Amino acid sequence: MAEFSSAGNNAEEVLIANAIREEMAGLGLSTVCSIVNEVCQLLVDHLWSECVSSHMPKTQDDFKKKMLDMDEFWQFPCCWAAIDGCHIPIKCPPGGLEACKEYHNFKNFYSIILMGLVDSHYRFVWGSCGFPGNSHDAVIFRSTDLWNSIQEGFIPTIGKDVGEITVPPLIVGDSAFPLRSWLMKPFTNAVLTPQQRYFNYRLSRARMVTEAAYGQLKGRWRVLLRKSETSRDQVRITTLACIVLHNICIMQGDAISRKLDLSVDESGGKRDREELRKLLQMSDCPSLKDASYEAARVRDALCAKLWLEKQTGKVC
């Protein structure tokens, strides 16, 4: 259990960790692992709905509140959440070379992918885990229950008039995701206009909430940083349990220590290179080629709005 702790952050945590070790003293490794696995499963089964799904907006007022918060804290209009994927290390999977290749990611280790949707307060409002590490984010997203719900009309038909366009509640994602009227991604032209570069900057700044959430998640629960010797399914359950605990910490106002927060390590130059790599990998993926005319119009309208704000000095 101690490997789940952020180990030694303060005197109280040291006392708790020592108490756990004393309680576990004399137990066999397999028994301890069984206890940990059972606790993780119980966290997901009984607290996921209360601690994660409850933060997903359900009514028009819920969406409006999410959008107001995102605009206030991350300065991107009409946005209610940000989406991104994250690699969780695993041992080399069984099944021969083909199975290994499927889980071997471009960072050169074996992993499963956690895809999460995060609100302005770093809370996960939705998450799905277990996809092979070599999978594309856009392909993963299209296979989730969240994508299906959105296609069935989950996002309400409310919007904000921006010029001649009505902009619906938006999710923001990186270059790997498909452009939709409800999902904004950066411009990826070979040559960008100043307006497009500024739009990309503002969108990237809004997406930082996911990077910060993942940094805090892994900083608090460092088991997610290490290659696990357990099964892929158990790694998946452990990861989802850590999301539950992460949200509980935020709900209780338990701020993470700066020295444990991995947000800085999850961003910056390395992150930019990763995003470029994703874009190159996705160049032949159909989901990048079927963006609707309406989605492009929404992005262009937002681009013009943000540039006007910059020119008039409303936002830096």
From TrEMBL:
Instruction: Tell me the ranges covered by the DDE Tnp4 domain, including all copies.
Output: 83-247
ATP-binding among keywords: no
Q: What cofactors does the UniProt entry give for this protein? A: a divalent metal cation
Keywords from the UniProt entry = Hydrolase, Metal-binding, Nuclease, Nucleus
Residues of the signal peptide? none
A Gene Ontology term for the protein's cellular component: nucleus
What Gene Ontology molecular function terms does this protein carry? hydrolase activity; metal ion binding; nuclease activity
Does this entry carry the keyword Nuclease?
A: yes
Q: Could you tell me where this protein is found in the cell?
A: Nucleus
Describe the family membership recorded for this protein in Swiss-Prot or TrEMBL.
Answer: Belongs to the HARBI1 family.
Question: PANTHER family given for it?
Answer: NUCLEASE HARBI1-LIKE PROTEIN, PTHR22930
Protein name (database record): Putative nuclease HARBI1
Provenance organism: Stylophora pistillata
Organism lineage string: Eukaryota, Metazoa, Cnidaria, Anthozoa, Hexacorallia
